[in-house]
């Protein structure tokens, strides 16, 4: 926590010098209420942009377990709220933990694509973000990160827009009937993709 308090203002200043960041729709993140931010994923620095956009308010970030192999990196990531998750291994313990934190008012950042896009295009969505939001009973906030580069990928000194859309209500994220859970998840994925498309159309460079 101390590292977070000390370094966050420094990181905020450096990031705004190296990348001209603009945040749109911050009012869609409600302080004191749990939520799941569902964001597209282009750069390794995407989580940093989201933390800075929600400046001064702690959140959890689901990050792949491999990033925590280096003790120094693991310490820094943990200080900024990152939680390691073993991808593709049914890491139910971590998911149960973040679900409880969301229930208690903590914001959570998840990248539904599960990995960075190497082309700048949106990749297939996984179900984890929807499952967590549904089990926690919290809204899902669509988020789109945009870079003003020819291929849409992050470059040094480029302009960045972090766009938060209108939340998908918690009540609409619950899967009431297990028999129809796959159909419900497919519909929710399409809804998030539509929200991402809208954020792009309204805010692209």
Walkthrough of the structure:
The chain has six helices and seven strands, in the order H-E-E-H-E-H-E-H-E-H-E-E-H. It has helices at about 1-20, 45-55, 70-80, 90-105, 130-135, 180-205, and strands at about 20-25, 35-40, 60-65, 80-85, 105-110, 140-145, 160-165. Helix 4 (about 90-105) packs across helix 5. The chain is globular. The chain starts with a helix and ends with a helix.
Q: Which structural class should the secondary elements be placed in?
A: alpha/beta
| CATH class membership | Alpha Beta
User: Within the CATH hierarchy, at the fold level, what is the topology?
Assistant: Glycerol-3-phosphate (1)-acyltransferase
SS summary, helix count: 6
Strand order of the largest sheet: 1-7-6-2-5-3-4
Taken in chain order, the helices and strands follow as HEEHEHEHEHEEH
User: What would you say the CATH architecture is?
Assistant: 3-Layer(aba) Sandwich
Cα-based radius of gyration, to the nearest Å: 16 Å
Mean pLDDT: 86
Ends distance: 36 Å
- Domains (count): 1
Q: Which spans of ≥5 residues are poorly predicted at pLDDT below 50?
A: none
User: Considering DSSP H and I runs of 4 or more, what fraction of the residues is helical?
Assistant: 25-40%
Report the sheet-strand fraction: 15-25%
CATH homologous superfamily descriptor: Glycerol-3-phosphate (1)-acyltransferase
Basic shape? globular
How many strand segments?
A: 7
| Major beta sheet summary | 7 strands, mixed
């Amino acid at each position: 926590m101390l590292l977070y308090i000390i370094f966050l203002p420094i990181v905020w200043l450096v990031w705004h010098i190296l990348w001209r960041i603009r945040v749109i729709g911050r009012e869609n993140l409600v302080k004191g209420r749990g939520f799941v931010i569902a964001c597209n994923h282009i750069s390794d620095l995407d989580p940093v942009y989201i933390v800075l956009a929600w400046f001064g308010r702690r959140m959890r970030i689901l990050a792949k377990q491999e990033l925590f192999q280096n003790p120094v990196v693991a310490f820094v990531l943990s200080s900024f709220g990152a939680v390691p998750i073993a991808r593709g291994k049914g890491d139910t313990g971590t998911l149960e933990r973040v679900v409880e934190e969301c229930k208690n008012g903590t914001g959570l950042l998840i990248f539904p694509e599960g990995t960075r896009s190497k082309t700048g295009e949106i990749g297939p969505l996984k179900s984890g973000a929807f499952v967590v939001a549904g089990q926690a009973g919290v809204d899902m906030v669509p988020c789109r990160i945009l870079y003003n580069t020819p291929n849409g990928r992050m470059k040094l000194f480029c302009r960045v827009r972090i766009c938060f859309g209108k939340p998908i209500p918690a009540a609409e994220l619950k899967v009431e009937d297990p028999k129809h859970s796959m159909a419900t998840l497919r519909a929710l994925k399409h809804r998030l993709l539509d929200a991402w498309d809208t954020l792009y159309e309204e805010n692209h460079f």
